[in-house]
């Protein structure tokens, strides 16, 4: 599958750039990051906090797409957007996070607090990198 295949399939659509929506998304991303930083990471909260950081990363990639004139309708298609903008390493990392999130949400899998700490640090690094390069 390629980015163009996803355009044809309708998982990605070409849209006019909407600065109001982009600004709103960036504000939501920043607020969600502040919220997650306030939470205590423990055996009860770790799964939800990890999913929260994944959702922020997903929103950042969606916002990058909006800035480039694309509306993306699937999590998998976000990986192909990253490839299209030559973010190959980021696309691989995001796809791993996507699969992990799916295993937690759809398969009932669990992760330890130690694993979540490591994964969250990796996600935060990618969040900051993509935000600084593409959103500001």
Spatial extent as radius of gyration: 15 Å
Number of helices: 6
CATH topology: Four Helix Bundle (Hemerythrin (Met), subunit A)
Q: What structural category do the secondary elements indicate?
A: mainly alpha
Number of domains: 1
Overall CATH class: Mainly Alpha
Strand content: under 5%
Based on the structure given, which CATH architecture is correct?
Up-down Bundle
Q: H/E series, N to C?
A: HEHHEHHH
Task: Walk me through what this model shows.
The chain has a single domain, classed as Four Helix Bundle (Hemerythrin (Met), subunit A), CATH 1.20.120. 74% of the residues lie in helices and 4% in strands. It is built from 6 helices and 2 strands. The chain has helices spanning 3-9, 19-38, 46-67, 75-84, 88-106, 113-135; strands at 12-14, 70-72. The chain starts with a helix and ends with a helix. The mean pLDDT is 96.
Which helices and strands, and how do they pair?
Elements: H1 3-9, E1 12-14, H2 19-38, H3 46-67, E2 70-72, H4 75-84, H5 88-106, H6 113-135
Antiparallel strand pairs: 1-2
Q: How would you summarize what this structure contains?
A:
With 136 residues, the chain is mainly alpha-helical.
Question: Which terms summarize this structure?
Answer:
mainly alpha; Four Helix Bundle (Hemerythrin (Met), subunit A); two-stranded antiparallel sheet
């Amino acid at each position: 599958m390629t980015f163009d295949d996803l355009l044809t399939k309708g998982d990605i659509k070409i849209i006019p750039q909407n600065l109001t929506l982009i600004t709103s998304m960036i504000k939501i991303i920043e607020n969600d990051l502040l919220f997650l930083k306030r939470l205590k990471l423990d055996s009860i909260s770790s799964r939800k906090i990890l999913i929260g950081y994944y959702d922020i990363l997903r929103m950042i990639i969606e916002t990058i797409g909006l800035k480039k004139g694309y509306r993306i309708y699937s999590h998998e298609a976000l990986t192909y957007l990253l490839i299209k903008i030559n973010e190959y390493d980021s696309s691989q990392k995001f796809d791993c996070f996507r699969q992990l999130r799916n295993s937690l949400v759809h398969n009932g899998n669990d992760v330890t607090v130690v694993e979540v700490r490591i994964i969250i640090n990796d996600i935060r690094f990618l969040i900051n990198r993509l935000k600084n390069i593409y959103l500001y």
